[in-house]
# Entry
Amino acid sequence: MISASLQTIVEARRDRARAPLSKSHLGVAGLIPHPVLDSPLMKMGGYEIFEGIPGKGQFERLQSEVLRLIVKACQSDLAVSESGGIPARRQLRTAGGKFQRAFYHGRRTLRFLREVSGLPVEPTGAFGAYLYYTRPGDYVAPHRDGEGCDLVVITCLYDAASPSSDGGMLCLYPDRLFERIDGIRATPEKRAVKVRIAPGQTMVLFGGYVAHSVLPVCEGQRRIVSSLCYRLVIPRHISTKQPAGTKEEEEKKPKKN
Ligand SMILES: O=C(O)CCC(=O)C(=O)O
Ligand SMILES: [Fe+2]
# Structure
């Protein structure tokens, strides 16, 4: 089933193909390759939540590893978002260890992601990250993940959220795919889709394309996730990338970090 949001995307693309918009109207859309727009995952809004990925044993190993590595975690705080770039945030983060790496690079994981996204993927680095939202108010402002992080795999390892609060929820903007990130930051409630991933659940998200944020965690809530970045392997001639140095290119550069 094609969602309403995808229909909008497809129609907007067709319109642009007929009568190209001026550069200032392109936004991030000018950077979305056709295979991504046409992929099964994008047809679902650019994200999906799964259970049992990683499997039970692997999940338990990640849970113990993330607690062991918390002593190495560093503050990753930025009070104000950079215009068009790095988002404001409060979180602790550290590089993953050998158990996360085994999941990150595992053949089963890569096969699964290829099935879900409809495209071959490759890890962007040797290690992923563990993110700790353990201080009241820890969050990440709306952003798109940076260059090389087309697809992100977020596994919730711990989250003691109260069911009545939206603390620590992921806020997604699948219907604002074509908008500049500054516009989304100015009106964060507009067409926001709020989703909680519970411990054991994994979100697969086109994080380089679908803007997203993490809502501030509440007093006493501890949300800890594993975050893994993948590059989509798309033949170069299919890419719709803008020439280097355009505003659109600049918007894509800032990495999650
Ligand atoms: O904590 C999360 O669920 C996602 C964080 C995120 O989007 C990021 O660090 O880029
Ligand atoms: Fe992100």
Observations:
- The two ends are 35 Å apart (CA to CA).
- The chain has one domain: 27-233.
- DSSP finds nine helices and 13 strands in the chain.
